[in-house]
Specification:
single chain, Alpha-Beta Plaits, alpha+beta, 6 strands, 161 residues, four-stranded antiparallel sheet, flat
């Protein structure tokens, strides 16, 4: 992978000047390379990873992983069905998978009920969807390579002999 991409993937806040120092380049060359990477679609956007576990917000919603079994359409394959599914605003990610199911769809909603309504009213009735299995995420420990919350240290004193 491009060295600039590797640096930005680890820390999107790295400035062109910092990247230039790391790579022995000029900041002008780094800025130019970043603009080209953005223009070519390699860099889609910059985003923060938020530890929602620390927010303790009742309205932070729920996230579910939905396994979807589909019948691919002739001459269109899985892509046509995946495109229809990922257009729903509830869908945050959609992947073609190998194994017992075809698509893995990540869905966010305000509650378990909104996600289950999405599955029952929008996803399951779709033509070519043969079945779904929904897994609700109960707690996130690590996301995109970043540990979200360090384990709490025991408040019990250590026993020494």
């Amino acid at each position: 992978m491009n060295e600039i991409l590797e640096i930005l993937e680890k820390d999107a806040r790295a400035t062109p000047e910092e990247i230039a120092r790391m790579l022995g380049m000029t900041s002008k060359a780094v800025r130019s390379a970043i603009k080209k990477l953005e223009k070519d679609g390699l860099i889609l956007k910059y985003k923060a990873i938020i530890n929602k576990e620390l927010m303790r917000d009742e309205e932070s919603g729920v996230r579910a992983l939905i396994e979807v079994k589909v019948t691919p359409q002739k001459n269109l394959g899985f892509t046509h069905i995946a495109e229809r599914i990922y257009q729903f605003p509830e869908v945050t990610s959609c992947y073609l998978m190998s194994g017992t199911y075809d698509l893995l769809v990540v869905v966010e909603g305000k509650s378990i009920h909104t996600v289950s309504n999405f599955v029952a009213e929008k996803l399951s009735p779709m033509e070519n969807v043969r079945g779904t299995v929904t897994h609700f995420i109960l707690k996130k420990y690590k996301e995109d390579g970043d540990i979200l919350k360090q384990p709490e240290k025991s408040k019990r004193p250590a026993i020494t002999l």
